[in-house]
Amino acid sequence: MVAGFSRARLMAGVLGLALLTGCAESPPEQLGREDRVAAVPVFELHMPEQVWQRTDVRLGDPGVEGPVTLVPEADGMVRIDLTGEQMADYLVALDHNAHGGISADDPELATAVYDLVARVIDTLPPPAPGQPAPRIVVPATVLPPA
């Protein structure tokens, strides 16, 4: 017994927390992807602002912590520069919404964006000094027709 809690109560609490925050069907590569992006200094994302607003959500809150600046581009897209840790946060939010997290937001869009982002992450070379920021483009075609 730990400070008044039985082992069964502790296990039930841990399991409940895992179910609340976890994803039902995360890909087996998810944790490796999170580690990989966290080691990269900066990422450059290009996507429609609406895609960012609809996919940077986890349990009703922003998925990415810290300051995030959206820079408008001439083609109607926005550029979002994220640190490796912020990119890992975004990947967790996408995974949650795409793969069955409790209260998932916009799973169809999250799945499309997750798949695009994962393809880029899976082909990244190991980080090296002076290497340009990985660029990830999410086209407007991921949005369902209005």
Describe the model.
The chain has helices spanning 7-21, 30-38, 49-55, 84-98, 107-122, and strands at residues 42-47, 57-58, 61-62, 70-72, 78-83, 135-137. By secondary structure, the chain is α+β, with helices and mostly antiparallel strands. The chain has one domain. A hairpin with a 5-residue loop joins strand 4 (70-72) and strand 5.
Per the principal axes of the C-alpha atoms, what is the gross shape? globular
Distance between the termini: 56 Å
User: Into which percentage range does the β-strand content fall?
Assistant: 15-25%
Number of domains: 1
Give the gist of this structure:
The chain is built from five helices and six strands, in the order ααβαββββααβ. With 146 residues, the chain is an alpha+beta fold. The radius of gyration is 17 Å and the shape is globular.
Give keywords.
alpha+beta; four-stranded mixed β-sheet; 6 strands; two-stranded antiparallel ribbon; 5 helices; 146 residues
Task: Describe the secondary-structure layout.
Blueprint: H1 7-21, H2 30-38, E1 42-47, H3 49-55, E2 57-58, E3 61-62, E4 70-72, E5 78-83, H4 84-98, H5 107-122, E6 135-137
Helix pairs in contact: 2-4, 4-5
